[in-house]
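In this section we turn from sequence analysis to structure. A common task in structural bioinformatics is to predict how a protein folds when a small molecule is present, because the ligand can shape the pocket around it. The inputs are simple: the amino acid sequence and a SMILES string for the ligand, here molybdenum atom. Study the lines below before reading on.
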Amino acid sequence: MIPIKSSEITPEAVYNSRRQFMKGVGALALGAAALAACGAPADQAAAPASAANPGATAAPAGAARVDELGDPANSVQEITHYNNFYEFTTDKQRVAELAGTLRTRPWTVEVGGLVRNPRTFAIEDILSGFDQEERVYRLRCVEGWSMVIPWLGFPLNKLLAQVEPTSEAKYVRFETLLDPDQMPGQRSPWLEWPYAEGLRLDEAMHDLTLLVTGLYGETLLPQNGAPLRLVTPWKYGFKSIKSIVKIDLIADQPSSLWMIAAPKEYGFYANVNPEVAHPRWSQRSERRIGESGRRETLMFNGYAEEVAGLYAGMDLRKNY
Ligand SMILES: Nc1nc2c(c(=O)[nH]1)N[C@H]1C(S)=C(S)[C@@H](COP(=O)(O)O)O[C@H]1N2
Ligand SMILES: [Mo]
């Protein structure tokens, strides 16, 4: 074994070893907390670089994608083979294989609640009804790793405009498909299924907030949340809920799967913030998949200029 410097041991690795320990203890009550955002051993993570991306259409042929900070996008192989999707497995490197069987047709997305025009969209209508654009965003998982991903999608505000939220609508709640026959992870009693997430309405209306249907110019694969998932790049990755079937406009702040599982660890806002540690690890740095060493984590994941105003006057330690 190659010795690693303690400075390179990531929170994931530290956490994982603690998890091994807890397995030995075998205390059932630890279940939910132990599951929460647990990670695969950090250093098995770097997937081999893939060949060039397969026939991407959204950028000029052969153009390398970079984010606005100049960092290159991760490879298709990395983005599609290192995933969190607890409905299938907690093993990031097996999600691709196990989620592959998810049936994404027929698929409908029911949009309702406090709206003037409730509507159930067939996925085909979403794909053809909204101009799909490419956005190269950083994704920062709360566990301490990150990637750069060229998403294909459209602003959520365009879909919300069609259903016309009423003046009572203050929050948006999202739900993943509930189907334990297809998603065996939903038989785990430690988490409250279906996966649910929420945004404040102004966050949902922000131009950075995307509904995503693809990446690298190709249709989204199940492991990345096909056929439709949310992406909020200034928030920890768990807010970016996958395989959405329901979107509700509501009056009161909703709860989420992670808030229910571990309320002290996962709050409603989940804005990326290097100053506010997770109770079990620092958030000051992160491991970019494919790189060795660590990078400093940026406030709001580098999107402060765009989103800091949403939180003016709020105590970001309390509203974690
Ligand atoms: N339904 C659902 N959505 C989910 C998750 C999940 O387990 N189930 N995991 C979240 C977490 S923790 C992260 S980091 C991202 C990972 O997205 P990716 O696998 O496409 O990189 O998806 C988020 N969305
Ligand atoms: Mo995550």
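Residues 136 and 150 are 4 Å apart (CA to CA). As an exercise, try to locate the residues that line the molybdenum atom site and compare them with your own expectations.
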